[in-house]
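Run: sequence + S-adenosylmethionine -> complex structure.
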Amino acid sequence: MSLGDAGLPRSAVPAAFDVGAQSYDRMVGANPGYHEHLRMSARRMRIPGAGRGMRLLDAGCGTGASTAALLAAAPEAEIVAVDASQGMLHQARNKPWPASVQFVQGRIEDLADLGVEGPFDGILAAYLLRNLNDPDAQLKRFVELLRPGGTLGVHEYSVRDSRPAVWTWNAVCWGIIIPSGWRHTRDTTLYRHLWRSVLTFDGAARFRRRLTDSGFIGVHSATVGGWQHNIVHTFVGQAPA
Ligand SMILES: C[S@@+](CC[C@H](N)C(=O)[O-])C[C@H]1O[C@@H](n2cnc3c(N)ncnc32)[C@H](O)[C@@H]1O
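>> structure
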């Protein structure tokens, strides 16, 4: 499939993940820090009391890597994990989970039609916002879905604020991720989309402003260590009380 400057049309993204679903865990398992960085973002949400009595949403849960990170940060919470890709969700559901974790297939934009209602005490969106048609509208829906004072954590690639990060991103995509995607799936669509969509996504400062403009308060962000320094970020904000 041909890609525009910003990657795939966003409505085509979940189907592209269907193609990559079987290899997804192997691919990200080869990425040093992938799981640890997700756990770091979940911890940065500072969910109190191991999440006891709380409801959390994992928006765009994929094969469950971010769900596992939320579960580690809040083992006592009830977690609803939503993804639009049937293939990714199939991988997630095939893993062992406690009864407190529930998976739902559908677009995050259609949450109400899926029978998923707020309020949530926390929402984690890992590698999702960049893949949406209208991230601003979704961020506003997240504010409404959260209890007053509830926390949004966005775990996302953002390279525009750092020239070394852009160089590293180009080198890693063309040297490792795209060739490895080809070896695993014989289709590079998803991996070229990843490359382009990250290059055109907000810089960290712009995304923090987007969160504030969407109604979040106390917005801050931090990056991670290793080669993904200034490439992977955790953004955190609160729904106003
Ligand atoms: C890069 S994966 C990340 C999965 C998981 N959060 C993780 O950290 O490993 C992005 C996921 O977002 C899902 N996705 C993309 N657009 C979506 C949408 N509009 N609604 C729900 N899920 C969506 C894709 O199907 C894919 O599984």
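>> summary
The mean pLDDT is 96. The pocket of S-adenosylmethionine is lined by residues 13-14, 17, 38, 60-62, 65-66, 83-85, 88, 107-109, 126-128, 131-132 (CB under 6 Å).
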